[in-house]
Amino acid sequence: MPPLPDLFKPLAPMVQALSPRVVSARLRTGPWRPPAGTPRIAVIGNCQAEGVARSLRLLLPGAEVETILVAGLARRFGTIDRLASHLGSTDHVFSHFFPEGFVPGGNVHALAERMPRLRLFPTILFAGFHPDLVHVGDEASLRLSRLVPSPIGPYHSAIALQAFRRGLSVAATLRLYDGAVFERLGYFGLWQAGADYLLRTARDVGFGLDREFALWCRGGVFMHVINHPRLHVLGDIARRLAREAGLDPLDIAVEAYAPDGLVSESVWPVLPAIAERYGLAGSTLFKGDGRRAPPRLLDLPDFVAESFALYARHRPEDLACARVAAWETDREIGALFDAAA
Q1: What is the pLDDT, as a whole number, of residue 2?
Q2: Are 119 and 95 in contact (CB under 8 A)?
Q3: Is the distance from CB of 136 to CB of 323 less than 8 angstroms?
Q4: Range of the domain at 329
Q5: Could you tell me if residue 179 is inside a domain?
Q6: Predicted TM-score of the model (pTM)
Q7: What value does the mean pLDDT take over residues 207-229?
């Protein structure tokens, strides 16, 4: 390492310690050049697919990467045979699982029969950081249009919904966002349950994530909401897809060079009692979707108050939520809410 100016000499030990790791040997050997060949890749999936595709474009300079959202399969292609025909010229097809109903002709397995080179990759769902977050409405449909919106998007507080159903005031409801209440509601147990679910579903599609999950946990919060991972998570998945397809992705951190598209949508805070349990920085600030307008930021009291106002405009039967329905049959949980009134 060349001599440093006097101004920087106090930093020399730190710089010398870090310098061998800052730039990989691959990038030190000479001017950067894009790899030979232009693989054509299609990424099929939900809202996470665009982050995987964006990562692949960065990791594989020169690659042609197309994002195909499952929500638009029927409208765009009409049948699964036409989808397969469209994919015929691609070198690699990476897809989330999608069930029947999204495109006439079958599910992702029917597509795989027509496209033997299709590789499944997992959808990242993890509630450990946000155990109070639930969907309200027809969740089984897997369609955003059938969910009831909250003040920040399709994400609701189970505590707020249950408190509204039991006639609590906003002030009384706020007293329930407490570690002892979270313990009684089983929120701290959702970390292990969420981890088990994520790792099992990843193995089910032949894409085990045990190593990656451990690394993500060590790095702190890796989810914006329960179904929106941060970009470095999707970058790790993209890198593996590329390598296991025989490609040679760049050895770079995707999140250092590409925007995180999902952060422009809703962001749910890691509430203080949850953060304290896991040694994280907590917050009560909720962020709304900022893709079409400046995002709204709501503190917990405002979020609960606006949620109550929204619920009051709906019929009770529209506010379907499996967790809250289960709570309503549990006398102890009912007493817990009533005690806060």
Answers
A1: 41
A2: yes
A3: no
A4: 133-191+268-339
A5: yes
A6: 0.87
A7: 98
Amino acid at 87: L
Judge contact between 286 and 300, C-beta under 8 A. Answer: yes
User: Can you give the pLDDT at residue 267?
Assistant: 97
| Residue 98 Cα to chain centre, angstroms | 17
267 — alpha (psi -120 to 50), left (phi > 0) or beta?
Answer: beta
DSSP character string of 205-217? TT---HHHHHHHH
120 three-class SS: strand
Q: How many other CB atoms are found less than 10 A from the CB of residue 123?
A: 18
Q: Which residue has the tokens 């097809």?
A: 93
Q: Let me know how many helices (H) and strands (E) the chain has, helices first.
A: 16, 10
Q: What is the CATH number of the domain that holds 90?
A: 3.40.50
Please, what's the b/e burial string for 168-203 (b: 16 or more CB within 10 A of its CB; e: otherwise)?
Answer: bebebbbebbeeebbeebebbebbeebbeebbebbe
Of 239, 243, 240, 198, give the one whose Cα is nearest residue 217.
198
- CA 136, CA 162: separation in Å to the nearest integer? 12
